[in-house]
Amino acid sequence: SQTIHQWPATLVQPVGSPLSLECTVEGTSNPNLYWYRQAAGRGLQLLFYSVGIGQISSEVPQNLSASRPQDRQFILSSKKLLLSDSGFYLCAWSGTSGSYLEQFFGPGTRLTVL
Amino acid sequence: AQSVTQPDIHITVSEGASLELRCNYSYGATPYLFWYVQSPGQGLQLLLKYFSGDTLVQGIKGFEAEFKRSQSSFNLRKPSVHWSDAAEYFCAVGAGGNKLVFGAGTILRVKS
């Protein structure tokens, strides 16, 4: 069966520091991968999605970037964190055929920028 | 552009009472629709989905949802709520290009 992992689970970082959040998927090949941010009371905002290695689409201009160095690895990064980057970050994957829109979510990373 | 509206930010129901969470979508073609549930500090879990066919779909944990094209709605229902159902619920619509658009969510509180 497929599983999705995110780490770290929680992170407290000072303003101006770098960021690296990692997401990995097991049990599937060539998944579509997604990064979302969830701010308190504001639902889910799609940040990036990827349909293959090195293929990244950005949905919202911001202080963050994403990379997909391997088929089942998706990384969210920042060179200098802002206070507004605080939130709950969720990674998700979906298949590429059949019920390809159905997304499966990881447990999330709680990021607090101080 | 596709959009999803969940009109109720919070809903409180008594344990054992019935539940209906509202979802309205905006989409030009036949939509792909989803309901997800999120417990505090956790990821999202898929409750049910509608792609085509029978407009009443059954999901996990005793939930069901009905697709009504004339009303652009996909409301989530449960006949008898349990305290463990307290969570946040998100409706989503397929937005093309392998993407989903989510509503803002409805927080369900269950009182004993």
Written overview of the protein:
The complex is a heterodimer of chains A (114) and B (112). By secondary structure, chain A is an all-beta fold. Chain A is built from no helices and eleven strands. Chain A has strands at residues 3-7, 10-13, 19-26, 32-38, 44-52, 55-58, 65-70, 73-78, 87-94, 104-105, 109-113. In chain A, strands 2, 4, 5, 6, 9, 10 and 11 form a seven-stranded mixed beta sheet that branches. A four-stranded antiparallel beta sheet of chain A has the order 1-3-8-7, with no helix packed on it. Chain A is globular, with a radius of gyration of 13 Å. In chain A, 37% of the residues are buried. The model of chain A has no long low-confidence stretch (mean pLDDT 92). With 112 residues, chain B is mainly β. Chain B contains no helices and twelve strands. Chain B has strands spanning 3-5, 10-14, 19-21, 24-26, 33-38, 44-50, 56-58, 64-68, 73-78, 87-94, 100-102, 106-111. In chain B, strands 2, 5, 6, 10, 11 and 12 form a six-stranded mixed beta sheet that branches. Chain B has a four-stranded antiparallel beta sheet with strand order 3-9-8-7, with no helix packed on it. Chain B has a two-stranded antiparallel ribbon with strand order 1-4. The radius of gyration of chain B is 13 Å and the shape is globular. Chain B starts with a strand and ends with a strand. Classes of the chains: A mainly beta (114), B mainly beta (112). At the A-B interface, β5, β9 and β10 of A face β6 of B.
